[in-house]
Amino acid sequence: MRLLFLLSATLFVSLGASVPVFGDSWSAPDSTWRKQTKDMSGRAGDPPDKYFRITYRYSSFNSHYDGRFAEVELGYYEQKQALKNLMQTFLSTFRDIGVETWLMHGTLLGWWWNKHILPWDSDIDVQVTEPGITFLATYYNMSVFRYKTPRISEGRAYMLDVNPHYSNREQTDGLNKIDARWIDTTSGLFIDITAARYNLTHPAGEGMMSCKDGHEFKDTHIFPLRDTIFEGMAAKIPSQYADLLAKEYSTSALTNTQYNGHVFKEETMEWVPDPRPFMVQITGQPESVRTEDSDHHDTVLPEGL
Ligand SMILES: *[C@@H]1O[C@H](CO)[C@@H](O)[C@H](O)[C@H]1NC(C)=O
Ligand SMILES: *[C@@H]1O[C@H](CO)[C@@H](O)[C@H](O)[C@H]1NC(C)=O
């Protein structure tokens, strides 16, 4: 039975409070796992060999929702909030279990601008080392971590799912480029985790690293990692972040203050929907209207958690 594989490494953490919240008000992991039998995302249409299935071709659903958990695509502000929670719980869990991880791709670009996730981007990317992914696969696959924070007062379960194809280092398996996922079991939103592996046969010689998605870089562009803050939490970024970003997105992505239906407001250091009509479709209500809490709850976790 599938549920037996659930290693319920249950963790109660209260972000922003000085004491972790312990309680028995939590439901068992199985009640959140596979909460529905019908996959609403269209995942069923994917090739059977693909471990993390995509969704977009088979339904109107956004591909950045895990079809096992997603029921609806969230509105603009709800999604933004859910992604923030996703990132915060991810960063604090990985810090807790001692797995080094750093921001990459569009997520790193979001950091560059204002240390937040880009509001139009639900494709969240982080990387780990090869020993890191092996450790996760060995000890934490399918672990469920439960969090209770000022913003998630009802509590929420996040699951770490490691692709069994992680052990294949080669770029031959185009269906399994993503090595693991950190999944919000309520919304289905997730973070893609890829391992950066030393490439021993790279024509450019020693120190080259490759990911299964084809990205490659020199190790000195990544290490030593730099300490920073992202979404209010301690996080790490590659040492040569500007070079990496310029190479991936061109320098204009680092300076253009209008992008994807959004404008960057220097005064508030925020990407906001472009006020010109129809630039972006906004659904839901801004956080400030919906809830009273704000960024000052995003204090770093207490020591020793
Ligand atoms: C993680 O667990 C799932 C569910 O049991 C399994 O299908 C998958 O192969 C596991 N991944 C690894 C890396 O063992
Ligand atoms: C190493 O790099 C080469 C050249 O980019 C690539 O073809 C090969 O797939 C890489 N190997 C691994 C294990 O990633």
Q: How is this structure best described in words?
A:
The chain has one domain (2-258). The strands form three sheets. Strands 1, 2, 3, 4, 5, 6, 7, 8 and 9 form a nine-stranded mixed beta sheet that branches. A three-stranded antiparallel beta sheet has the order 12-13-14, with no helix packed on it. The chain has a two-stranded antiparallel sheet with strand order 10-11. The chain is built from eight helices and 14 strands. With 305 residues, it is α+β, with helices and mostly antiparallel strands. 22% of the residues lie in helices and 21% in strands. The longest helix has 22 residues, at 76-97. It starts with 11 loop residues before the first strand and ends in a 15-residue tail after the last helix. The chain binds 2-acetamido-2-deoxy-beta-D-glucopyranose (NAG) (2 copies). One 2-acetamido-2-deoxy-beta-D-glucopyranose is lined by residues 169-171, 199, 201-202, 210, 216.
Please provide the count of β strands. 14
Number of helices: 8
Helix percent reads: 10-25%
Number of domains: 1
Shape: globular
Q: Biggest sheet, in brief?
A: 9 strands, mixed
Give the end-to-end Cα distance, rounded to a whole number of Å: 32 Å
Bound molecules: 2-acetamido-2-deoxy-beta-D-glucopyranose
Low-confidence stretches: 1-42, 56-60, 289-305
**SSE arrangement, N to C:** EHHEHEHEEEEEEHEEHHEEEH
User: What is the average of the pLDDT values?
Assistant: 81
Rounded radius of gyration (Å): 19 Å
Supply the helix-strand structural class.
alpha+beta
The proportion of strand residues reads 15-25%
Keywords: Membrane, Signal, Transmembrane, Transmembrane helix
InterPro entries: FKTN/MNN4/W02B3.4-1, LicD/FKTN/FKRP_NTP_transf
Biased composition (Basic and acidic residues): 289-305
Protein name: LicD family-domain-containing protein
